[in-house]
Specification:
The chain is of the alpha+beta class. It contains eleven helices and 14 strands. A six-stranded mixed beta sheet has the order 10-12-7-13-11-14. The relative contact order is 0.15.
Length: about 350
Amino acid sequence: MGEAGQDKGSYAAAGVDIDAGGKAVELIKGHVRGTFRPEVLGDIGGFGGLFQLGKYEQPVLVSSTDSVGTKLKIACALNRHDTIGIDLVNHCVNDIFVCGAEPLFFLDYIGLGKLIPEQVESIVKGLAVACRAVNCALIGGEMAELPGIYAGGDYDLVGFVVGVVERGSIIDGRSIKAGDALLGLPSSGLHTNGYSLVRQVFGIEGDDRSWDVFYPELGRNLGEELLESHRCYYPPLRGVLPLIKGMAHITGGGLIDNVPRILPTGLAARFRAETWPIPPIFPLIQRQGNVEEGEMYRVFNMGLGMVVICSPDDVAKLTAAVPEAIPVGEVVGQEGGGRVIIA
């Protein structure tokens, strides 16, 4: 017998515990089933998730995949895993929602160095909470215990979302023109981008406890601020989609790289920086790391998690329906190479 009574030729001795995987599945079943919609056929545990598409005239499926990135390092450092799934679902749902899509179902992939059933349950619980909030079925997923690929307690979390939109209702930005209004919806903080730079700025590695430092301007410890969940913009905006010409989810690349993705050729976005409040975490990062302002706007969302473009005639109606949406600029003709101007 090997060490701890394990046969050297067993899978468990090689670092993969099949029994732990089975226990994890039992722990997450209730969370997953709680997200099911009537269109879900079958139960968890099959080789594939089944979803019966409802009645649409010209349905277009919209899909996206993403990860939480190195925000996972913060979750592991704090040993708190119940919010990281919320980040993932909301990030992915926002990405398909900019096309006008309703989220239908979600799948996740969790790769781990060591499968701890209670940790997996905590992760999946967060996924389920976020899925239920937008009526999206958590239809399937995969847990892969991969010793040698992931070290110690490290893990990776990846999500896949599929939504649907009627072909005639796709939001693609093609009707945007000069003079249209830019509206911004506030972010809840960093969301899921820029964490590699943040970890470098604050020296967050291993067990140095940098995340335990209290910052008065934040009103809490750094770790609590950095784990603040990525917002989902589907609930507040789905009722005003007919008023919207284009939307940009402000993720990696910030305002500088994301807003041009929805602008027709020859147009640029001019933002008035004084029109929205910038959460204190961003000036803190800039000051602590001596980061140039241009870099800040290219890496982080700087307080705007979603930018909406509409006709100036619809601003009053849109802001009345969504009071947190505030005018932050306008679409202008492009002059030179820059497509985003922040003044």
